[in-house]
Specification:
Bound molecules: zinc ion
Strand content: 15-25%
Structural class: alpha+beta
Order of helices and strands: HEEEHHHEEEHEHEEEHHHH
Distance between the termini: 39 Å
CATH class of one domain: Alpha Beta
Radius of gyration: 23 Å
Helix content: 25-40%
Strand order of the largest sheet: 6-5-4-7-8
CATH topology of one domain: Nucleotidyltransferase, domain 5
CATH architecture of one domain: 2-Layer Sandwich
Largest sheet: 5 strands, mixed
Length: about 300
């Protein structure tokens, strides 16, 4: 069991051995060809530690090949610490804080944080609900900066005005189960239906507020029950959307308190981060962190891809 004083956070060789133990928990294999039997440790002082040789494909490898750590100049112990900090802070940790704590540049810290979010993204999410489980669905708006619009003045001239820009987020939470949040372009019946039908099994009990876009969609589920917020109704027995509102509240506190400037093109990564922590809420911080590190395989991300719009 790790604790925060563990050498894996201070020493790059200890960190590498930690990664080896996580990645090769079922035995070492060559990341180039998948060979599991005929690989050997390369000895000798002139080689960097942690180097292996594959007798099948005749290539060398280390534990970082094919992971987000490959070709990174940041020492592995700083990576392991960054994972721990992001996995253990309920509301996330800013790139500024990572930069100060890890002693890397702000730009590097920002890049590391985005790569870690990428590992937190669930690539093969199963559907939520099913078997009569309860799924809550809701949307929220999050103020993500401002936009300049041209406003027509009474004399016909146009003048630029600054208007707030809101990101639209839809989230689903299975009660007692997982959450899944989406960045949507607009809160419309079509968008809401697409997200629901793709992600929630029909034999689920759907709980929403009274929003009109749920009326016809809800008929496709086992039951559809609504709380009427406009009548100040929030709970009617088991009918409520408190679980999802709790999810949104953690997300908003994190986004306001920690991540003050989130470009819309990065929003889906932040949502993945909050989903990951919510969905691993029963794990202790070290186990959650280990789970994220294990998922770093096959998630290599270049700077170019990080900077591009993904939505
Ligand atoms: Zn090989």
């Amino acid at each position: 069991m790790l604790d925060i004083n563990s050498p894996v956070y201070k020493d790059k060789n200890a960190a590498r051995k930690h990664l080896e133990a996580l990645r090769w928990a079922d035995g070492r294999y060559c990341p180039h060809c998948g060979e599991t039997q005929h690989t050997a440790f390369v000895r000798g002082r002139k080689h960097r530690p942690g180097l292996y040789y594959c007798n099948s494909c005749k290539k060398q490898f280390t534990v970082t090949v094919g992971t987000i750590f490959e070709r990174s100049k940041v020492p592995l112990n700083k990576w392991v610490l960054a994972f721990h900090l992001m996995c253990s802070s309920k509301k996330g940790i800013s790139a500024h804080q990572l930069h100060r704590t890890l002693g890397v540049t702000y730009k590097t810290a920002w890049f590391m944080a985005h790569r870690i979010r990428e590992t937190m993204k669930d690539d093969n999410p199963g559907a939520l609900g099913g078997g009569g489980k309860v799924v809550e669905s809701d949307e929220t708006y999050f103020k993500g900066g401002s936009k300049i619009r041209l406003k027509t003045l009474p004399n016909g001239d146009k003048a630029p005005v600054i208007v707030p820009h809101f990101y639209k987020i839809m989230a689903l939470v299975e009660r007692g189960g997982k959450s899944r949040a989406f960045h949507i372009s607009a809160v419309t019946t079509n968008n809401v239906r697409d997200v629901l039908f793709t992600n929630v099994l029909r034999d689920s009990h759907l709980m929403t507020d009274e929003a009109g876009h749920y009326h016809t969609i809800g008929e496709r589920y086992m039951t559809h029950q609504r709380v009427v917020h406009s009548r100040k109704e929030y709970v009617r027995g088991k009918v409520h959307t408190n679980t999802i509102e709790g999810y949104f509240s953690i997300f908003k506190r994190g986004m306001k308190g920690t991540y003050q400037h989130c470009g819309e093109q990065h929003l889906s990564r932040y949502l993945a981060e909050f989903d990951f922590r919510y969905n691993t809420r029963d794990l202790d911080d070290f186990t959650r962190s280990a789970q994220a590190i294990k998922a770093s395989e096959g998630k290599r991300l270049t700077y170019r891809r990080t900077s591009q719009r993904t939505h």
